Amino acid sequence: MVPTRLNELPAYAELRALAARLQSADLQQLFDRDGQRGSDFTLEAAGLQLDYSKHLLDREALAALLKLAQQAGLPGRIGELLGGAPVNNTENRPALHSLLRATRAPQGLEDKFAEVAAARDRMRHWADRLHQGKHTGYSGAVITDVVNIGIGGSDLGPRLVSEALKPFHGDIACHYVANVDPADLQNTLQTLDPGRTLFIVCSKSFRTEETLTNSLAARDWMQQAGAAVADLDRHFLAITTNLEAAAGFGIPAENCLPMWDWVGGRYSVWSAIGLSCAIAVGWECFEEFLAGAEAMDHHFAAGDPGANMPVLMSLLEVWYCNFFGAGNHVVLPYDNSLRRLPDFLQQLTMESNGKRVSADGAALDYDTGPVLWGSAGTMGQHSFHQLLHQGTRLCPADFILPLTTHTGMTGQHCRLVANCLAQSRTMMVGRTTEAAGAALRQRGLDPQEAERLAPHLAMPGNRPNSMITMQALTPATLGALLALYEHRTFCSGQLWGINPFDQWGVELGKEIGVQILGRLSGDDPGGEPMDPSTERLMDAWREAL
Ligand code: F6P
Q: Which of 10, 52, 224, 431 is spaced 20 to 30 A from 402 at the CA atom?
């Protein structure tokens, strides 16, 4: 199928005209003119509520965006994704992360589903064994600490989920080591007892430099502590598609849980890549996490585009990216346990949609995936929210707010909620220069001084934002939230006509890294000469030793 060219779709020109009109729209007036806006521009799915009423959007623009989705063939593409068509066309593979949380085999995917179910059984075996304190190490002591060694999708998903579900943890502590900087591993190992530690080497390819380097160092640490080679089986599991390389490292097949080439790393937390989370929270809880994602999959598959949460969020992304020139998107989780969400979403969205050619290889003449950034509220308020409110750039925002807290400190949580709602409303309403001047005069400033300062206090407002709420952050709502962003990412990729499932852009840096390592380490002293800047920097490293 020929991929979409966004700017060739008939609705594109109409949307440009609508965006020109809505660019200067007053959001409060949009509410005043449309009494149903507040309730109609909201949506419920899989335990999540999306309020998209504070957007530079009216019913006419929404209808045109939905036309764009139809013209891009989005409903058909969603069917292809979920049905296992080879949507990753540069690698000729399906992208079947939804199968990892399915409870029934979709038609035509019975064989793959059977493999997933078998892997889930094995995952459950290890999760139960460790969660219930039944697995012992070389010294006979029970394992109390699990260290996930992985990077990118083999780290960010499990790390996020494990932290977000802290209130559901049992007795096992989970740690995450990703960086090839030895300080990452060293700082983690410092606190651990080798006899009570189990490593999960997470690497789809089992070829990733950072993961292999850290895993070798972890194995040395274990042996230096007295573990014999024969004991290492008790301390190392691997999650990989590459059983041969895992065996070469010394991890036998019975300690390896599978991955498949039809699951992208950044979409893999639902597979055995999420084993550390299943160990931490226990299998039943992990199944609830999968069930939340499956509920979102069902909504995504069934919802007509106008009532489909991932589709709407994707249309908003494209709306601001391609019609308002917003090159970024900010994610603001008002829940401390979701503070890693922006990191996770950066890989999900930017590794997926940071592409400059269409799925058929033609250079694109419009923007694709925006820069995603953010941090947990309220910290960002005391850091970058200044720019959100008064900067010159448009930063469309997603606020994410669990309505209740697991801490039992409802009174203090009320402050967090108030801050979240206040930031969302402030982005929208802003404050005119006149209102700022009046406020200053009321504070006792003389009129001249008030006039001088008023422009500095004025805020344009009309800064668009969504609010995603949920009753509580639970395994199920977390699963739904992550699946929501996965599907939003897919839809945007389709609207831009790109392949969201490859990541060729990371490869050249890895190759050049190997060449430079050869020169620095002396293993390949005659290797390729570099540019003068890089040569000088390599000399600086040698001199610093
Ligand atoms: O280099 C990018 C990448 O391939 C990511 O897509 C992936 O999540 C990460 O590296 C880790 O890969 P692996 O699981 O194969 O070690």
A: 431
